[in-house]
Structures are given as structure tokens and as C-alpha cells.
Design goal:
- The complex is a heterodimer of chains A (179) and B (828).
- Chain A is 55% helix and 16% strand.
- Chain A is α+β, with helices and mostly antiparallel strands and 179 residues long.
- In chain A, strands 1-2-4-3 form a 4-stranded antiparallel β-sheet, covered by helices on one side.
- In chain A, strand 3 and strand 4 form a beta hairpin.
- In chain A, 26% of the residues are buried.
- By secondary structure, chain B is of the alpha+beta class.
- In chain B, strands 11, 12, 13, 14, 15, 16 and 17 form a 7-stranded mixed β-sheet that branches. Chain B has a 5-stranded antiparallel β-sheet with strand order 2-1-5-4-3, with helices on both faces. Chain B has a 5-stranded antiparallel β-sheet with strand order 7-6-10-9-8.
- In chain B, helix 11 runs parallel beside helix 15.
- Chain B is elongated and about 235 Å long.
- The N and C termini of chain B lie far apart (224 Å).
- In chain B, 27% of the residues are buried.
- Classes of the chains: A alpha+beta (179), B alpha+beta (828).
- The interface between A and B is medium-sized, with 15 and 11 residues.
Amino acid sequence: MKGIVFTEFMEMVEQKFGYEMVDNLIEENELPSDGVYTSIGTYEYGEMVTLLVDLSRRTNIEIPKLLYTFGQYLFNTFVAGYPQFFEKAPNAFDFLESIEKYIHVEVRKLYPDAELPTFETHRIENNTLKMIYKSERKMADFAQGLIEATMAHYKEDAVVTQAKIEEEGKVVHFEITKK
Amino acid sequence: MDDKVKMLERRLARERKARKQAESILEQKAIELFKANEELRALNENLEQKAAEKAKELEKSEQRYQRIVESAHDIIYRINAEGKIVYMNSVVSKILGYENSEVVDTFFLDYVEPDFLEAVSKFYANAIDTKEKQTYFEFPILNKSGELVWIGQNVTLVFDGNELIEGTAMARDITERRHFQEELRRSEERYRGIIENMELGLMEVDLNGTIVKPYPRFCEMLGYESDEMVGKNAEDLLLPERFRSVIQQQNADRQKGKAGVYEMQIKRKDGSQIWVLISGAPIYDLDGNIISTMGIHYDLTPQKQLQADLENAKQVAEEAQEAEKQFLANMSHEIRTPLNAIIGMSHLLYDTRPTAEQKEYLSVLKTSADLLHRLISDILDLSKIRAGKLEAQKKEFDLRGLVKSLEKNFQLKMEDRPIEVKAFLGEGLVNFLIGDDLLLNQILLNLMGNAAKFTKEGHIHLYVNLVDISEGKKTYEFRVEDTGIGIPQEKMDLIFQSFRQVDGDIKRKFGGTGLGLTITKQLIDLQGGTISVESDVGDGSTFIFRLSFEDSGRKIEAKRTLETPFSKKQNMVKKVLVVEDNYMNRKYISTILTKWDLDFKMAHNGKEGVEMAAKEKYDVILMDIQMPIMDGYEATINIRNQKNLNQNTDIIALTASAMISQRDKAFEMGMTDYISKPFKPNTLLEKLKLIESQEVTEDETLENEPFQFNEKLDRQYLEEVYEGDLEYAADMFETFLEVSVPEIYSIEEFIKSENWEKVGVLGHKVKPAFSMVGLTNLHEKVAAFEKQARSDEPKNNLPNQYQNILKELEEFLPILKEDLKNMLNAGR
């Protein structure tokens, strides 16, 4: 998992719970990286799981909610850091469709070893988009956060529903219906 | 507090580590980038170079292809799937007149000639459907000037799977080839048309003799269908047995490459045989080997038929001709007999003392009968000549004598008319000639008779001149000149044709059978001579003919004695010739001659008498006066004037008692005595006693002083010409003085009037006469004079020449007169 996830996660934790929490997470857990993350580095996904679990225990917030919140937080980072992707897509659905076709393609160009989820998109009539999320990291909630943040960003009112297709959560159906 | 500091320290440491990590990662990435860049650059450079090389190669290759394409003779072009021209080489401007820039982006079908558009579209649409990659098609195109150009193009279609991508085409201008093809086709058709329609039968046979191709006409000729003949052996099918050997020979010739023509019969389908003319020739292939033979057959059936018909016709014609001849011969005999009886009877009537009235009737009767007789003779002669039955005899005769007789004869005939009859003889009449004197006599008789008929007054002249000597043959030119009514130019050709006279008037006025000149011409032609006429209406006519005779080499006896009424010997006559047409008279005479034991022969008319006199020598001739065919006068003249055995024989005229004038005439003609009918035997006997036998004939010439010509004349020439025949010479001198000299003077007026033609004619006429009197020098001068008058040269000195001639002539005139006198005296 790319460093940016870890660095942003730590930022969010710091922002929301203070640096002490960050420090605790690092000091109290066995982390191969020793908590040293740079956004351009690559670290084990397992470290994220550890961090999430520990954070969830310490804050009493369920992991899914943590992930959902993180998703929304990371969206802002993306908007600030890579505005060109959002400028390219005129509306939310177009943007969501471009993640697989374009954005992740560009990411892989720079970071060939990036582990990214795959999205299969289908438009159903004018106001519904179906996105099929597939990933080994099973972070559908994270994805939902991002999705909802996207809708909000494009100021499109929509309802985003999630349906597990694979019991572990490796394959999830999202249905985004504009209001 | 410590905790916070420691926490911050830990944060710082982590931050620092993170930073260092990042830096390390960046550096790595930078190095990777650099390496990648380097590789890229190297690759780039390499690529650029390769690209440049490739580009150059491509350019060269393109240029090469371009050149090939441009230098092609054909139009090379590419079209896209829609049929639009995307590229065309510049040959198009040569062939069609379009610039290649004009044609790009246009549809190639636009150029096809409208009538063919459908066909072309269909063809290529089909090719595309059936995915035929390579095609060839010919069609006409309109060039820039709108003219038709025939194109033959190869097209290669390029497909990508099922789809047509493009096409490449090579188009050739085949206009000329098509033109030639068309010509060839037409030519072939023409020849085929000719061959197929010829009336000749053609058949091609291979080297084994098997029929390869029988042409329609030939099949027709034989009654076969074409397929009945093909494949069969020509000889077996068509050849009759007996011609096998002919064919074998012809085949051998054909193998050697010889063509040949031959006649033979061939079998038709129905078994009948027809005659054909076959011409065979070998047929060669391109390498010059004989591959077959062509036989051309020409149906000879009509020809053969024609031949047979001609044979028949010839036979029929010949039979007809034979029949005609027989008929004529018979008829003439049939007619002659009663005619002779009429003539004979009319003669007898004369002797029965007719009254004046009766005499008149008799005269008419006699004239009519004579005319009829002449007509029959003419017709018979003509038919004889035509039938080739008349042959010119070859006998020795005396031309001079013949001419002289005729002259005397006609002088007698023209007695009571103001017409002068004269004969002018040239040289070369010294020897006996060999020919047919009877025919010649008849010719001259005819011509002079005509002259006499058509001339009222003036003269009839007969000129005889030697004009050529070669190889022992002498050619004489005879001219019968009269001053009669003349013949119009347009009728000149007419007069020699049978039964033709100048016109109807002539017939009425002058009578005649119209056969005279025809026969004359035939007689001349028969002897290989030529005849022509010069004449003008009112100006008289001159008939000119030439005949050739062989010279016998024998001289006619030069010395001639003039007739003496009585010879000196005293033997009694032994042989008598009786010329008498009357049967009774003949009977009477023969009785008494027999009683006296004398040899005698009978002639029934003057002509016979002359003939017989020529054959044997008689002691005396008893000559009746009035006889048919030739009367006594004429006969006597003949005998007296022509060299013959009886030239000096006594002739006793048997006169009709009523005709006293006959006696005088008889003497005039040369008869030596007369006895009038009827006579007593004794009277005759007394007369006979006066005559002596001429058996022992010796020429008794009275020797006189030998005569010599004046030395001023060409004595040698004169002696050669006349060889002592003084009478001949005297005659000639006389003629010269009496006739030629006036003629010479007459030239003067024509010189004055500058009528050179007439001058020439007269000069020509008188010229020979000069030699005949020994004036050979003058002869030359006259010859030159004549030549100049007749030429195109200037004539201004002719009057002078003429005067010179006259002067010289006048000097000689007294000499000539003197010689003539001496000659005449010498004869006495």
C-alpha cells in the first residue's frame, strides 16, 4: 500500500485525535516501518490493518466508520493534490467512470507496483450508476466515503448503497442514485 | 512535559527518517529516470538514423518505381474502392491527352465511351463480387478531344478480407491493334467470301490424302454434303480407276512442292462423272513444311459440251460449203449450156440474112446473152477463188506482148470515142516471166474495161514499171489511169466489195455486175499482190497494183521480123487450126479438110483459139470473126502481139458476107486473108494454096544495116534494155515524144501556181520514160527534182531546176527524133 494512504491517515488521526494518538498508535504497535511513512514510499497493507484495529479500540469507533470517514478525508487531499482529474470530468458520474479508465492508469504509470481496487461501472438510465468494487484489501467503506465525497463535490444529491457480493467483502456493488 | 518532549522528539525523528526515506526514494527514482532518459535518447538517435536511412531507401525505391511507372508505355493508375483515380502516370497525357493532375480524383468510369459504360461497369462489378484479383478487359475510352481510343487493361484488385481496398490498373492503347484486327477480319471475310462463292470447287486434303475441308461449291458440284466428304480418302471417294496414274504423278509433284494443272474426270455422288480442270498447290505452315494440299476444281462440262458442239458445227459448215460448191458448179454448168445455145443460135441467125429490124433484135439478144454469160463466169470465178479452187499457174509468158495486145484491143474498142488508149512500158520486159498470164490478162481486162466504161473522153493509160528485183523475183507496178468520172473518197473502200458499185446511179447508168473489181482484187490477192486506187470525183481514177513474177532467165527472141503477108516457101499447108463457134460451120469445114487429108484442130471461140495457138504451131488458122467470149479480132491481136508459136502464122478471116467492113478490119487486126461465108470448098483451097507450110521454120530476117543509137544517148543502157529489139525501142521513143514530152511541159503551169504536189506527181510519172530513151543523166535530175517537190524543204530553186531540165531535154529532142526515124526504117 502506497505511502500516501498512511501519511494521510496519520494526518487525519492527528487532526481528529491529536498527535498523541498518532504517537500511541506507532509506539504501541509492532510496525515494520516503525511508523516512518513517506507518501511516495510503499508499506505493507497489514500495517494499515493494525493501525485501524488499534484506533478503533482506542476510539471506540467501528472500523467501517473509520474507513468511511477516512475516505471522505482522503477525497479532499485528492482534490487539492490532483485537481486535473476533477477538471477533466464535468460531472460525478463521468468522474467515477474515469477512475478505472484513466486515474488508476495514470497512477500505475508512476507507481507500477500500486495495489489498487478495480471498478466496473454501468450506467443505468440517466441518474443511476452501478460501480462494482473488487479488491483484496476489502475497504468498500473507504470507497463509499470517497464516492459520497465525490457526489458532494459535484454538488449532486445522491443516495449511495452498498451490497456485498462476496462474503469477505472482496467484491461489492455500489449503486449511486441521484435524487 | 517530558512525555511531550519525548513525543515530539520521536515525531521529529520519524519526520526526519521519513524525509530521508523520501529523499532516498527520489534519488533512486532520479537515477532510474536518468537511465531511462539515456536509453531513450540512445534509442531515439538510433531510431532517427534508422528512420533517415529507411526514408532514403524508400525515396530511392519510390523514385525507381516512379521512373518505371512513368516510363511505361501503358497508363498505370490506382483507383480507390469507389472507383476514383488516386494516381495516374503521365503516360495518360501521351495516350489520352489528359494531364495526370486533371484525372486525379475523377472516376475512371467517366472516361468510358457511353455505349460501353454498362458493359464495363458490369465486368468490374462482377470481378469485385467474385473476388477475381487479376482481370483483363478491352473497351473504348474517349480521349480529351473526344476521339475514341481502344484500351486493353489489366487490373489487380486488392482485398482486405471481403472488402475491396483499391485497384491497380495497366491500360494499353490497342486502337491500332484493333484496327489491324478489323482489317484482317474484313480481309479474311472477303477472301472467304470470294473462295466460298467462286464457281470453282475447292478442297483441302492432308498429306495422307484424307479430305480435310471441302468448300461448299465443290460439294455442290459433286452432290455431297460437306460432312459426307470430310475424313474420307479423296482418291477412293472421287477418283475413277483409269485416272489413278495421273493422280499419282500429281501427288509426287505436290510432295516436291510443285504446283500443277491437269484435266480429268471425277465421280459424283450419283455415280456420274464430270470433267474438271484441277489445279493443285501445296499449303505450307509457318516453318515452311508442307502440311496439306489445296485442290481447285473447275467444272469443264460446259467447255466439253462447247467443244463437241463446235465439232458438229464445223462438220455441218464444211458439208454445207461442199454442197454449195457442188451446187454452184452444177448450176453454172446448167445455166451455161442453154446460154451457149442462145448465143450460138443468135450467131447462126446473123448468117441467115436477117432484115434490119431482125438485126436490131438480134443485137439486143446477143448483148443480153453476152452479159448473162459474163455474169455467170464472174460468179463462178468468184466462187472458185473463194473455194480456193483457182490456182495461179506458172507458165512462161511474154509480159510486153500481153500488154501490147491489150493496148491494141482497147484502141480498137475505143475507136469511135474521143479516148486515147496507150501503154507505157518500162524496163525489165526482155525476158520471159513465169506466172499466170491468163489471170494477169483478166485483171488488166477488168481494169481497162472499167476505165473504158466510165470514161467519156480523154485517155486511158496503162503504165508497167519494174519497181523491185530481189532473189530472182521481179515486182512490177501496173497503173491503169483514166480521165473518167472518178470515185468519191468515201466510196473507195466500197468498190472492192462484192456486188458493190459506187452507187445505184452508176449501176443504172453504166450497168455491170458489180463483181468486176472484187474478182480483180481476189485475183491479185491470189498471186500475192496488192491493189489500190487513187481518184477524185471528176478527176479520173488510177488503179495501181503490183505483182511479182519469177524471171525465167530466157530472153524473148530479140529479133522479130515484121509480119509479111506471104512467106517464100511453097509447100502446101498441112496443119490447120479452125476457130469457129458455129456447129454447122465447123462440121462443114471439118468435112472438107478431112477430104483434103489435112491435120486440123477445132477451137470453139477466140479464147480457145488463142490457147491452142499457144500450144502448137499451125500452118494456117481459119478464124471466124463473130464468136462468144473472144471474137476473131481479139484472138488475132492476141496471137499477133504475144510471143507464141503462131505469131506469124497466116490467119484467114471467115467473114460474114453481110459485113464488108469486117474485111478491112480483119487486115487491120493482122489477119492475112479473108473468105466470106458461105464459101465453096474450092475457094478455100485456093486460099490455102497461097500459104505455105511453116514446118521448116527458119527465122528469115531481112538483114539490114545494124542500127546504133546516137552516141549522145546512154547507148550501153539502151542496148541492154532493148537488146536489139528495135520495134520495142521505136515504140518507146515514139511514146516518149508523143506523150511524155507534152507531160513534161505541162509541169510548168503547176510550178507557176506552186502546186508542188502536182509537180511531184507528174515528175514521178515522167521520170522512168527518160531512161527508156537513154537519157539516164536527165533521169537523175528529174528524180532529184521530184524528190524536192515532194519534200518539206524550201522550193524556191525548183523553177530553176525545171528550166535546166527543159533546156537539156530540148537539146536531145532532135536526136531522139532522128533515132526513131532510123529505127523505123531499119525495120523495113
